[in-house]
Amino acid sequence: VKNTVLIIDDEPDIHRVLTPVLSSAGWGVLSAPTAAHGVRVAKANTVAVVLLDLGLPDSDGKEIIGALQGSNPLSIIVVSARHQDSEKVAALDAGADDYVDKPFNIDELLARIRVAERRAGTWVAKAPERYQAGEIEMYTATRQVTLSGTEVKLSPKEFEILRELLAHAGQVVTHRRLLMAGWSDVTIDPQYLRSYIALLRQKLEEDPSEPRILRSEPGVGYRLSI
Amino acid sequence: MMIARLRLARPLFDPANGWHSLAHASAVLLCAIAGYVAHLNSRPVTSALALIFAVVLVATRYGLRAGLAAGIVVSMTYNLLFSDPFLRFGVADIEDLIPLLAFNASAVASAYVGGRLRDEARRSREALDRVDAHLDFSQALQKAVSLEDMLLAARQSGEIEAVELHLDDGRTFTAEAKPDLKLIAEHFRKQGPGRMTAPDQRLYLADRFGRCFLVVLTSRTGAIDVSAKLAILAIAAERWLLTEELMKADVLRRSEDFKTTLLSSVSHDLRTPLSIITASAGSLLRYQESLTQEARHDLLKTIEQQSTKLNQLTGNLLSLVRIEGGLDLAQMDTVDALEVLGSALVTIRQFAPDRIITKALAAGEAIVRADPSLLEQVFINLLQNAVVHTPSDTPIHVTSEYDADQVRIAVEDKGPGVVEESAELVFERFQQVPGHRNKGSGLGLSIARGFARTIGGDVRVGRRADGQTGARFEVSLPLIVSETAT
């Protein structure tokens, strides 16, 4: 048996649809219909990934992100029908690792769970010396970055932004976190960030006007796709 | 004494007008002295003229009554001091009577004419001031955008110390809330229009004009002007009420229209994919065994596609409601329109992987103030429109160019194009051009234009730039000056 996924959602159909799919993909599945129940289950079991709905009957899902992470090194994917960008950003800044809009494409959800699962065990570990995503490789000690084996010259800020994206490869990283990575200051005009992302795209993307690697999530942040 | 009881048109010495009054008094005194000196030098005619001139001076400055009083004083003085017998009324010689009478008559007549002239001038000046004040007041009312502003204008125009406006629908507006005025207004509303003098001589006035019941507190002297002001105020208030009603009716009608069309369209557009999903799922459940593997797969594929369609429709409906509800441009972020276009292109390629989409994009950033999700929806809707309404083997071409202070992003297709008569129709909600029904929801282009206009841009349809057959949908967005662009 692989790791365990905890689904916290008050909609019974979500459990009914997801439980067989996740089980057949090899995960153990736990279910909770309320926030309080979810926190109890997370504390009593070893959970790798939580699929968290925001509109729970007893409290807002955002409120329990801290409590969920308190006990286990687990990853939280917000799965919500609230499509406002501000809601997503708030959940991510509160510590969620990723989000998926409802209704979701099942393949995409499984891919996100796999990414989250990989990161679940490493979040307290020391920053690794080597990152890899797709054709991109980064050696943090020598500050070297290669694309398909060819070295790419990056400025210090470009390097820090890319490192943050690589550290969360496959997951969305909010503008705020990228500003912290590049400038250690969240009050910087996001326009600077956009300029640096554009520079990175020039160096890493086949077609910078239609980026496939450094995807933007409008209003939320950027995602390095793997 | 008579002089003491005279009510002068202006005080004898007005400190604000000090030098004027002093000069005037000196002139009168000079005339009197000149008259006396002339008399001592046996120049009776000069003496009389000087004295009459003094009377005229007094009359023109202090009005008719003061002039007449001065005339009488001068007549008596002349009789007593200047004409024989000295220090006695009456005449020594019958021949002296004629000049004496003539002098007296001239003095009184001069006083009368001078005084009347002065009083008339004063009255017309006051009338003019009053007309000016009313005109100013009217103008202030014209500028007022709310009833509160109107009442404030009334209070600032002078004479009105406090005012309350009661409407028949129960609403009350006030400028300078005074508890006693509130009580008195309550009294008047029961008793009807009227007036009431307060112990401190100020006046409460209540009057009804149409639907407006006005109660004011005013100083007593202004009462006549205040009545006129109340009438002007009531007319302005009545006009404001009419405008308010018209606007309410219009908003209500538009929102009712919107709801009706939305409901009828939504029920149709939602039911179509839903019925396909229900039918497919039902077939799968009931005839699972008799269906071939391929047929089962097709049915499942159909369910997935129709669900995607439903989701897109829901997204568009939510966007529409957000745009209808009003968006605050100031709260929006700055985004690079070309970056958002890139995301939209990636999404649309997933939706239509076999479609050829070519690009000719200008270099650089196109920074605009916009809601990023809605802007992405604008591009997706335009691209989707081209994908859905043109043959699948024709290419779609996307261009961007900078034009002065805006960026223009266009989606060109090689379909039949849009005939000029239906050029505006394509942007109407729930409207679809004949021959293209049921391919989209009829919302995409309307939302694209609605949002583009909210952020100061527009979406237009026209011919392809290269003159070939096909439509060109162009989004123009105002660029914001970038301080940090690198």
Write structural notes for this entry.
The complex is a heterodimer of chains A (226) and B (486). Chain A is built from 8 helices and 12 strands. Chain A is α/β, with parallel strands linked by helices and 226 residues long. In chain A, helix 6 (156-167) packs across helix 7. Chain B has 486 residues and is an alpha+beta fold. Chain B has helices at 2-5, 18-40, 44-82, 94-143, 147-156, 179-191, 223-286, 293-324, 337-351, 372-389, 444-454, and strands spanning 160-167, 172-175, 194-197, 203-209, 212-218, 333-336, 357-360, 367-370, 396-403, 406-412, 458-463, 471-478. A 5-stranded antiparallel beta sheet of chain B has the order 2-1-5-4-3, with helices on both faces. In chain B, strands 7-9-10-12-11 form a 5-stranded mixed beta sheet. In chain B, strands 6-8 form a two-stranded antiparallel sheet. In chain B, strand 4 (203-209) and strand 5 (212-218) form a beta hairpin. In chain B, helix 3 (44-82) crosses helix 4. Chain A binds chain B through residues 83, 85, 103, 189-192, 194-195, 197-198, 209-212, 215-216, 218-219, and chain B through 307, 311, 315, 318, 333-336, 338-343, 345-346, 359, 361, 365, 367, 371-373, 375-376, 482-486.
